[in-house]
Every structure is written in structure tokens, then in C-alpha cells.
Amino acid sequence: MNLALLTIGDEICLGQIVNTNAAWIADQCSRQGWRVLAHSAVGDAIQMIIAECERLSGLADVVIITGGLGPTHDDCTKTALTEWTGDVLVEHKPTLEHLQYVMRQRGRELNARTAAQAMQPSRSTPLQNDKGTAPGIWLEIERYGKPVVIIALPGVPQEMRHLMLDRVLPRLRVYDSQNTSRLAHGWVMLYTTLLTTGIVESALADLVGDVQTLLEGQELAFLPSAAGVKLRITVTAPTRDEAQTLLERLTAKLRSIVEPYIYGTNDDTLEAIVGQRLRERGKTLAVAESCTGGLLGARLTDVAGSSAYFLGGVQCYSNEAKTRFVGVQPETLAQHGAVSEQTAGELASGIRKRFDADYGIAITGIAGPDGGTPDKPVGTVWIGLADAHSTHAEHFVFTNDRTFNRERAVVMALVRLWQHLQVTT
Amino acid sequence: MNLALLTIGDEICLGQIVNTNAAWIADQCSRQGWRVLAHSAVGDAIQMIIAECERLSGLADVVIITGGLGPTHDDCTKTALTEWTGDVLVEHKPTLEHLQYVMRQRGRELNARTAAQAMQPSRSTPLQNDKGTAPGIWLEIERYGKPVVIIALPGVPQEMRHLMLDRVLPRLRVYDSQNTSRLAHGWVMLYTTLLTTGIVESALADLVGDVQTLLEGQELAFLPSAAGVKLRITVTAPTRDEAQTLLERLTAKLRSIVEPYIYGTNDDTLEAIVGQRLRERGKTLAVAESCTGGLLGARLTDVAGSSAYFLGGVQCYSNEAKTRFVGVQPETLAQHGAVSEQTAGELASGIRKRFDADYGIAITGIAGPDGGTPDKPVGTVWIGLADAHSTHAEHFVFTNDRTFNRERAVVMALVRLWQHLQVTT
Q: Which of A280-289, A337-346, B98-107 is the least confident region?
């Protein structure tokens, strides 16, 4: 089954907000083995919405629209859909009753604006929204001699996700299975991603060699990311079982070649993988963060259950904090400076001792945009790693971008800890 | 001038990554007073790219393409462009020389794959890329009896931003001024956003009253965000000067009504505004973070120059860290628990004292998904705020989503500090 996504909203077109909805919906649909062919976004303008509905209906079996379903004057998706399909709005009694119930729960009167949400295209099936007032819309039409499902959902992410997971995906799975012969593509596409680190893209490409032969004509993409290169294998096959079998076989082939560099697959994060290793071994971790100000700890504690191995740390932004709360020698700071191998080492071993942790990690650097010197330009970062046996600090020079430097420092700290855990037991 | 954006890449279509490039480019163009009419994204498929180039050229004066310019086999934007315009690729000598220079700098040989980046559409102007190997493409064509500029940029955000800021925007400004009469729209659209906090959307709408009259027919959008509701005023006028004058007048009108709730405008962040207040008053801040693990410190130190007021903090994830490094009484933890008014208060006042700071902020909560009890469900957060005179802790119950709870806790801590700084001198 092929899909196209249409996002409605001036705030998207103007670039005021990032279109996270489209990525989330596409990811959910891709996981079903369906192929998302195109994303589109237009402003709150009825004629452009109609033109896009028409175009995307020619392209795909299913068009999922988000945004423009709210109660305010700039919401015009429902108007566009009725005009496009030559339909009319009629009162949908179950929706009205649901809105009355919701307002009672909130201790408020049902006003005219909210009640208008019960007006739905006569040929559509409203999808009850338990997280807001605008119901979703499910509309089956014929276009270009083939069936098309048009789905419209509110743009509020929480409401959209609820409607996708609880109303749309279950219906679409049934629809897909009942209409296979009538839909544009019966072929199933599946993919998996191997996450590598510690090897640059060109070296990885050399290692992989002839992609066509190795992957038997299926697709391989090299996707650079902060932690390293992601390898995405995409296979297409007539049935889900064939695609699954092929994907597993090709993944095993590729994996055998790049194994030493793989830290995870698909949605795995470095912080979750590192956390799992620490937990398996019953080891603990503490951090001392200067230029990252807490970003490493924030990443580590993004992982549910991280209290099993993350004890905490010190955001030692000032020099005084480095000496008083982590135990860096004042002479070290005076002689080598806050951004130095020596300070990074003392921060790592100091935080490890103070927290009685198995591992200590320290980050100290010049994030920028100011503070650089000819010796230590903006982007200079020292990352320290200490365990009971030794302390090691490594030097990096990133860019002149503050946000990038801080993010990259955190990623490299996690990479080094992962590598350290790979070679130690 | 009207624009359309086209993003190329399977990883976008499949939803593996969020399309942050489109939002960033749209924002940059909107700030110039140009109108971005549509965003589109398709996979690495030549025929779909060509179809989109054709369609978007009909819609807009400028089409900005990102992605698919790299050296690997799945990069096909250049092929699509040459095929679409009936052009051929020719070697662009300055690009080749630049690539040779870059490779020498990196101490590497110029291989065939990288050298192929010097092959450019014969009718285009290559845009030198100082952050990578793929040059951007600037191509002026005629379509549907009007001029269209086609711009293609690499998808790597750092390279794309460099090319947009240093090559594309300056050229586009000149192009716009030289072609005003030939371009689809001469009208200029400008907008500004007032950032409010401490008032809910419906109360804000009541306060604003009749939008049509107040804004004289221009547009006002209510955009909910974590910190509060953003009010975006958009005006359209025949000239830039008229738009600017109108925007300033309407903004002043709206501002006079909602003034007490405004913490900033446009791209202002709470952390930058709070930082500015602290800096103006010569005050300092320290933080104690339990469930956020460093996220508040990370946000505060996102701001360049934050070392002037942010001294640091303790990521007191474990109970032991709370007592040993922040000075919470063990009896307090035993009697009230780590997530309590008493602990939040002792963390805030304790961290303030240990760091000799003017203000201490503490966050302690149950981020989830586990760890909730009937008394203290997942999403329970206590935020403590201490100054030299008093300590106060406030109770929140957010959602069952770990990431959301942590983000919201950090935002509310910043909101409370901002409000505190508003009422104190």
C-alpha cells in the first residue's frame, strides 16, 4: 500500500515549527511495510489544500492529512475536503454527544464554536478523539479509477498520535488486507538500520565493497549521524514473509562484515546501549560536565531505569566548582587551564571517587562562540574517562558552532565509554 | 517573491529523520519577507524528483532543493536536474581545484568518487561549499512563461546552512530586487511573535477580544508551546516599508493588552531572557537536578556567555547524592521521600548555599514510566526556588510520558524563575 502525507498550516510553511508529525506518521506507516511516497505541506489556504488532495490521490492509495481541523478561523481542512469531494457538512450525533460529555467533564458549557466540530462531511466516518475536541475524518473515495482513503487528523501531536494509533492504523491494516488486489502496490517494503561508530563513511564503504552483489540488488544507504554512520538496508518483496526472510539474511551478511563497529540497530540510542552494558555488569557511572552544563547527564537519564547505573554528577561550570566539588587541584587549573588534558583527567577521576562510581566521565571545552585562543580555539574539547585502574583524556577540535560542539562532545563521550566497555569485562 | 521547498531522501519519506532543513530554510526565507508556499519531500527517485521540480516551478518563483547531492549511488538530484532541463554535466574547473585543495588539507588523495562532484549542469552556477565536498547548484530557467530559480543544496544541515547563509540568501536578495516586476507576487509578508506565559489560551483569547478589529483585518495566530501561548501577528502589504510600519503598529497595540504575560519576542528563549535578567542584576544561579539529570543546566548553558551567572549544579540522581552533595537531611528523605515539598526546598536552598549563589533551583520528580504510586503518580514533580530571603516549592502533575515530563519540568522551572525575577528587584 502506498501513502502520501499532507500537512496543513502556515506555521509549518513559514518554518516557525518543525514538521515532526510527518516524520512520526511516516515512521509508523513504514513499520507496517507500507511505502510513504511523498510528504507535502501547504498553508491554511483552501484552494491549495484541494489541489494537493487531488494530486496526492493520483499518487497514493492513502492520503493522511494533519492540521487545520481545530475550531479557530484559520482551520479550513474540513471546508476544503467537502468542497473537493462535492460533499456537505451534516451534524454527526455521536460526535455532538461526545463533545457534550467532554465539556461536562471539564465543567464548561458547550459553546457554538466547539459544537461546530460535530459538523462532519456526510460521506465520511468521524474518528472519535479522546484527547481533544476535533474528531478525525475517514473518507473513502474513487479517484483516477482506483480507491483512495483520505484521512484527516488534528495537528496537535498528542491528539494526532492517539488517533493514528487507536483509530487509523487498526482500520488501515484491515483496509489493506481487504483491498490488496485493488491497491497500487501489493509489494511489501521493510528496512532495518545498523548503527556503526568509530569508522568514517569512506572506510566503511571500502569495507562493505560491492553493494549490488552483497545486497543482491536490494538497497543500502549510508547515513552519517553524530555518533557514526548508519547503514540502512531496504528490501522489497511480494509478501511480508519473503521481505522479512530476505531482510534477515542480508542484514546477517552485512553485519558479519562490519560487526566490530556496530553498537546497535534501528532506534537504539548510544545512551540506552551503554546503560544496558553498565546494568548487565552491575557498574555505576558519574559525570563532571563543564562546557556541556548537564547535557551528558540529561542524555543518560533520558533512559528509563537509568538510576540503576547513573549516580549523578556535578555541573562544574565555574572553576571554583571544579576544585570545590570535583577535587581538581587549583595548581592544575593555574598551570594548564580548565580546558586541558590534566583538568579533564582530574575531573574524571575526581567525580568517580566522590560518587564512589565505577566510571567517571568528564567533559571540558570551549563551546564558543567566544573564549577561544590561538592555542585552544573554539571547539576544543577534552573528554576524560576514568575507571579504578586508569584515567585517560582525549582531545577533540570540533567546529565554531556552540550547539554542535556541545552535542558532539556528549556523543563522543558516550562513544568512548561504549568502546571502553567493549574491550573491558 | 514566492518559494517552494523540495527535500530529497528516502530517510525523510520513511520518517527515519525529521525534516529540520525545511523548517530552517522556510524560516530564513520568511524573515526576508518572502512567502514559502509549499514544502514537499520525495524519496531518492529520479522521476518523482523531476515531477516535483516541474510542479513546484509552476507554483513558485524559487525552488530550493535539499538532499541527494552527495557522492554515493543513492544521490540523484544532479541527474534529475540535468534530465529535467535537458542539460548535460560538464567539469567545473574551480570546483575541481577546490576539491583538490580540500583533500590536500585533509591529507588525502582526490578519488574518482569525490572528483565526480566537480561535474555540474552546464547551464548552472556551482556554489562553492566550504564545509563539504558537494557544491550547491544555482540554475535560472524559464517555466510557464516566467523565470524560476532552481537551487540545490546538500542535505547535511551544517553544509546546507553555510550555503544558504553565505551563498544563496545574498544572491536571492539581489535577484529579488532585480526581478520584482517579473515575479509572481510583489506583496511583502512580515510577521512577529509575542511569547507569553502564565495565561491559558482561552483566557488570552478573551483578553485579546475581537481579533478582526484589533488587527485591522491582518492575521493573528494563537500557537500553544511548552512555556505558554505564542501570539503570531502576520501582515501583508504592497511594500516592505508599509508592511514594517503596519506590523510595528499592530504589535504595539497587541502588546499593550497582554504586556504582563510577555516574556519575549520571536526567537527569544526563556533561558536567554532569564540569563539576561540575571546578568543585568549581577545575580548568580545554581541548580540541583534529580529527575532531569542535567537538562536544566544544559538549557541554561545553551546560552553563550552563561558563565556570567550560571555557577553550576549537582545532578543528584541518587538519594546519596542529594544528602552528600546538596545537603538534604537524611531524615527529610526518610520522612517525606525524594519527591516532596520538603526535599525540593532543601535541594534549592542547599545548592544555593553550597555554590554561594543568589538563586538556587531544584527539580525532583517521577519522570516515569515506572516509579509512580497512588500518592505520587508518574508525572509528579516538585520545583524548588530559593533566594537569600525565602524558599518555595511548587507541585506539578504532568503526564505519563518521561520525555515530556522532563522537558516540561525544565520549562516550568525557567518560567517560575522568570516570574520571580519580574516581581523582585
A: B98-107
Look up residue A108 and give its three cell numbers. 464548561
Please check whether residue A230 is in contact with residue A193, taking contact to mean a CB–CB distance below 8 angstroms: yes
- Residue ranges of domains in chain B: 2-182, 196-265, 270-423
Which candidate from A7, A15, A305 shows the least CB-CB separation from B30?
Answer: A15
Q: Which residues of A touch B158 (CB under 8 A)?
A: 399, 401, 404
Cα(A96)–Cα(A110) distance, rounded to whole angstroms?
9
Q: Give, in words, the CATH class of A2-182.
A: alpha beta
Instruction: Identify whether the C-beta of residue B36 lies closer than 8 Å to the C-beta of residue A13.
Output: yes
> Average pLDDT for residues A351-380, to the nearest whole number?
95
Give the pLDDT band of residue A74 (cuts 50, 70, 90).
low
Give chain A positions within 8 Å (CB) of B411: none
A40 touches chain B (CB under 8 A): yes
B147 interface with A at CB cutoff 8 Å: no
What are A40's strand-pairing partners?
A6, B40
Q: Which fold would CATH assign to domain B196-265?
A: Alpha-Beta Plaits (3.30.70)
CB contact under 8 A, B72 and A222: yes
The Cβ of residue A49 has, within 10 Å, a number of other Cβ atoms equal to 24
**Cis peptide bond N-terminal to B71, omega within 30:** no
Domain A188-265 has CATH 3.30.1660.10: no
Segment holding A274, helix H or strand E: helix A270-281
On the question of pLDDT at B358 being above 90, the answer is yes
Interface check for A71 against chain B (CB to CB < 8 A): the answer is: no
Summarised one tens digit per residue, pLDDT across range B174-224 is 998 888 766 655 677 888 999 999 888 888 988 999 988 999 999 898 887
Whether A57 and A143 have beta carbons less than 8 Å apart is answered as: yes
Q: CATH says A271-423 is which class?
A: alpha beta
| Interchain contact A41–B (C-beta under 8 A) | yes
Closest partner residue to B297 (CB to CB) among A36, A219, A293 is: A293
Nearest CA in chain A to B294: A294
What's the average model confidence in pLDDT over A326-336?
97
Interchain contact A55–B (C-beta under 8 A):
yes
Q: Calculate how close chain A gets to B304, using CA atoms only, in Å.
A: 7
Domain B270-423 falls in which CATH fold?
Answer: Maf protein (3.90.950)
Say whether A291 and B301 touch across the interface (CB within 8 A): yes
ipTM of the complex: 0.82
Q: Are strands B62-66 and B146-153 parallel, antiparallel or unpaired?
A: parallel
**Is residue B123 exposed (0-12), middle (13-18) or buried (19+ Cβ within 10 Å)?**
middle
Instruction: Output the pLDDT for position B113.
Output: 81
pLDDT 10s digits, A123-158: 999 999 988 889 999 999 999 888 999 999 999 898
Short-list A68, A65, A66, A64, CA closest to A76? A68
Q: Which residues contact B47 (CB under 8 A, 6 or more apart)?
A: none
Q: Nearest by CB to B13, from A36, A222, A354: name it.
A: A36
Quote the minimal CA–CA distance from A171 to chain B in Å: 20
Q: Which 158-177 residues of chain B touch chain A by CB within 8 A?
A: 158
CA distance A222 to A225: 10
A95-116 pLDDT, tens digit each: 999 999 888 887 888 888 788 8
Question: Which residues are paired to B420 by β-bridges?
Answer: none
Q: How confident is the model at residue B173 (pLDDT cuts 50, 70, 90)?
A: very high
- What cell was used for A268? 537504539
Confidence label for A175 from pLDDT (cuts 50, 70 and 90): very high
